[in-house]
Amino acid sequence: MLKPLIAILSQSPRYTSELPLLLTDAYEILICDSVSEVEELLASHRPSTFLADFEQVVSGGHLEDRLLNELQRCFPRMKIIMLTGSQCAEPLQRRANETDLIQLKNVETMETMAEVIETQFSTTAVTETVPTQPAKVPSPSSSHTTDSAPSLETPPSRILDRFQTESPELRLMLQDLEIAARHDVTILLIGETGSGKTYLSQLIHDVSPRSHEPFLHVACGALPAELIESELFGHSKGAFTSAHADKDGKFLAAKNGTVLLDEIDVLGPEQQVKLLRVIETKQFEPVGSNETHTSQARLLVASNLDLQPLVEQGRFRPDLYYRLNMLKFELLPLRKRKLDITPLARKFIGELSDLHGIAIHRVDSGLFESLNRYPWPGNVRELENVIRRAVIYCRDGVLNAQHLPPHILSGFAGPTNDPSVSLTSNESETQQRKELGHQIATTEREIIEQALYNNNFSRTNTAKELGISRVTLYNKMKKYGMSK
């Protein structure tokens, strides 16, 4: 028999991580981070229960009230639990009083929440996979009449669907980018290392009319300066010492597809002139050749540096800058979109636990709190690697803050292009980081953790490798709060 399906709309780790782990034996759980995900979920499934976390609301609760109205109108048999704080917004309180949805205020523990679900919905019908033409829930912000059939006024943005974010500023940028992506124009992406420029470039290609053509990524910063031109434009046989045969560059190899030039700021003046010509006329000559070729590829360029200061320093051509700046999109660093940290972390935990074959039964909320305090100079890529490290060190199925690297817990931020990056802390904590003893303790803990991992968490073998007794090892593990 199929398990009943419960859909949860929340951004709180209490409801998206802790609660599902308590219910997974008896229910199928689907998590929605946003209203747009609710519409997508209900297009293919019909949950028996919908849990809406409205402890924090926007616009006085009116948007949330519209969502509940659409859910009750489109799915009258679906049972709804609405979670609110002690001060419930007036529109939501009125809906709770006038309809049969269940309102819960200030749920203290997830065990209590699980018991409520067990008692209230144990007899709920199992989930139904919706055939052929499923009902759709209109966006709460869209206008509709009560007589019209439920439908979306505009299709959801494909980039927004795949580049998951709850940052209002970033969502607006992605909506504008979606429009530009569908036209044959050159796009400039500016963002710090690890913020997702390459992934976003792939999405631009995927939503464009060129999606079935090649997507070629050129990391200009990884190429020697003398080879960049050959890589882009190709070369003829004998053009230089190692040119033993003719070679097509990326602009020809991409055919009618897309070329991403990453770290465009490393291009020299002569290469910038040729790039500007390709943008303007589509024409170029391979290195060592007088034959003119025409590129049919679409061009995307990216940089982790703002180009305007480079123009002022004489390192970047003004004409190329102004040509690219017309369609410039800046990708926010992770520290400026805090709402995305927990959903991304949860996503990485699921993916990496499957990849490494490590069962994670519960995620302690302290882990998410630690992640949200850190400024993430390495952005999404750093977050993914930190979660990978935490997952491989988890051996009891409970992921907590102690599995995070010491620099995350202590707040040591690595190098970044933004000099304002620092972790908010009091003076005593800042002074503690500077103390030699604290730095030595941090290093000692890392050595012990690595030795434990190398010895499959055998304390006896770890103590032998470190040249200390088991008692000393136990005492140090206790000192650093490491699980036994």
Treating each run of at least 4 consecutive H or I residues as one helix, how many helices? 21
CATH architectural type of the largest domain:
3-Layer(aba) Sandwich
Number of strands: 18
The CATH superfamily of the largest domain bears the name: P-loop containing nucleotide triphosphate hydrolases
Alpha carbon gap, first and last residue: 40 Å
Instruction: State the share of residues found in helices, binned by percent.
Output: 40-55%
Major β-sheet strand ordering = 2-1-4-5-6
The average pLDDT value, as a whole number, equals 81
Largest sheet: 5 strands, parallel
Task: Give the CATH class of the largest domain.
Answer: Alpha Beta
* Broad shape: globular
Radius of gyration: 27 Å
Q: Spans with pLDDT under 50 lasting ≥5 residues?
A: 123-135, 141-156, 422-434
Classification by helices and strands: alpha/beta
Relative strand content = 5-15%
In total, the number of domains comes to 3
CATH topology of the largest domain: Rossmann fold
